[in-house]
Every structure is written in C-alpha cells, then in structure tokens.
Amino acid sequence: MDFMTDRDVQKYMQDGYVVLDGLLSAQECDELRQRMTDIVDQMDVPQHCRTTFSTYHDEQLKTQLQGNADYFITSGDKIRFFFEKGVFDDKGEFIVPRQRSLNKVGHALHAYEPLYKKVTHSPRIQGIAKKLGLVSPVILQSMFIFKQPGIGGEVTPHQDATFLYTEPLGRVMGVWIALEDATVNNGCLWFIPGTQNSGISRRMVRTPPGTFPLTDFIGREQTYDDEKFIPVPVKKGGVVLIHGEVVHRSAENTSEESRHVYTFHIMESQDTRWSPDNWLQPTEELPFPPLYTK
Ligand SMILES: O=C(O)CCC(=O)C(=O)O
C-alpha cells in the first residue's frame, strides 16, 4: 500500500494540509538531529550576526542591516545560520549556549548535507509526490527549524506562496518533518483549514538592484480570527504536507522541550513560472534539483 493513501490525498485537497505518521524512524530522526548538532558545534558565526544594533551609529547600523539582508538573500544555495533575538551580548559573545541560540539553518541542506539529501529524495517522499500527481517536482529550499525551549519565537500567520510565488498558484508544497514530538506546548503548527483556495493576501518581492531594503511586500498583512486556527500536533517522525496557500502559524515555545523540524519545499515545475521577483532564485551553483532521482 502507498505510504500516502487516497484518503490522505482527499484530506490534503480539502483542508490544505495533512499529517502522515511514521515517515521516519526514531533513529533516522536522531541521526538528522545529531548531524545538526555537529554542524552547529563547528559553525563560524558571521560577524554581522554577533553585533547588536544598539551599539551602532547610523552609518554602521546601515552597513549592519545591509550585511544581514545580504546574508539572507544569498542563502538559497548555502548553509547559513539564523539566530533567535538577544542571544549575543554587546561584545558579540553568546549569552545562551550556542546549541540553543538558533532559530533556523537554511536554505540548502537538501543539496549539501548527505543525510538531509537522502531524506529529501527518499522513496517515500518521491511516492508522496507521485501520489499527488506531480510530474516534474523540484526542490526549492530546505531548513532545520529549532524552536528551542523558552527562546523559540512564534511564526506569525502566513501563506508560503507569499515568499515562494508561482504562476499559476497552487504549485508549491511544504514538507515539514517532526524530528521530535511537536505538541501544543512546544509550538506545533496551527492551520485554518480550507484557506488554500482564496488566493494570497501579499507577496514578498525583491526590490530593484542597488536599492535598500533588498525585499519589500506588496499587499497587506491580513489578520485572522484566532479561533479559526486548529492545532496540529505531530509525533516524532511524522510529516505534515502544507499547501502553498493555506494559512498557518506556530506559537512561541514556552515549554522545556525543543521542537526540532526538518522542512523543505517542493514545486511542480511543469507549466509553472517561478517568479523572478521571489527572494529565492536558482543559481548556477545550485539550480533547483529535480525530486525524482534514482
Ligand atoms: O516550523 C514552524 O514553526 C513554522 C514553519 C512554517 O510556517 C513554514 O515553513 O512555512
């Protein structure tokens, strides 16, 4: 039997998301987490990440902001580090353990880290894409999201297509793999089911070359009725498939448990136009790799 059933497909089409238990074994989850621990142990913290805005004069502040923005916008074909707020002191030293300091690592683990690459292209993931009828899916980006205890921040309500825009819409899907139990206490995802069918409220676009900031938004951030969100806890090893237009969010982690996740986005590339205005662009170094590999 397929790992993803017809019923799962129906639920995904109807609600804009579906949970599939048991994509990975506990051991596979632990191996991915251990590899990330090693990466973080060895990371070189970029200087602009270490400095605190408040210690800067205007010109320095501008350079600092540009450094941060550039670090983000050129991260599509690299493995880079994005920190939680307030993890460095005025001298740029960690005030929390470095393993607890990160919000996420992105955006090309799927290309450069063999364990992550293997999971991304695994037969089960390829089977899910086939079950959903994807003909030429490619991998857009990948992230390890930490949501560390006590410090892991909230992710405000959004639609992924705001950041990963295609024409037509409906071509992008997030694959969100829980490497630990994700619960209401440690910051699981929440969804408004069915919102994938109403288009998107805003887009993040690149600004013209040579201008700052490097990205801007078109359209307004929408507010949503809190009561409409449904929590979606997931067991370690389970996966959530996220339609590119469904509204979702996650709360801050006020618990004592981390909520580590490996996530990546797939796009059906057949008859799809990837917007040149998106922050993320394929590069010579890393064109979007096809999902279907042997
Ligand atoms: O992992 C999270 O808390 C949020 C992830 C998310 O919203 C996304 O990847 O689109």
From TrEMBL:
Gene3D superfamilies in alphabetical order: q2cbj1_9rhob like domain
Single annotated GO MF: metal ion binding
Keyword terms, alphabetized: Iron, Metal-binding
Family membership noted in the UniProt record: Belongs to the PhyH family. PHYHD1 subfamily.
Biological role stated in the UniProt entry: 2-oxoglutarate(2OG)-dependent dioxygenase that catalyzes the conversion of 2-oxoglutarate to succinate and CO(2) in an iron-dependent manner. However, does not couple 2OG turnover to the hydroxylation of acyl-coenzyme A derivatives, implying that it is not directly involved in phytanoyl coenzyme-A metabolism. Does not show detectable activity towards fatty acid CoA thioesters.
UniProt-recorded name of the protein: Phytanoyl-CoA dioxygenase domain-containing protein 1
InterPro entries given in the database record: Phytyl_CoA_dOase-like
PANTHER family: PHYTANOYL-COA DIOXYGENASE DOMAIN CONTAINING 1 (PTHR20883), PHYTANOYL-COA DIOXYGENASE DOMAIN-CONTAINING PROTEIN 1 (PTHR20883:SF15)
Cofactor annotation: Fe cation
Source organism of the structure: Sparus aurata
Superkingdom per UniProt: Eukaryota
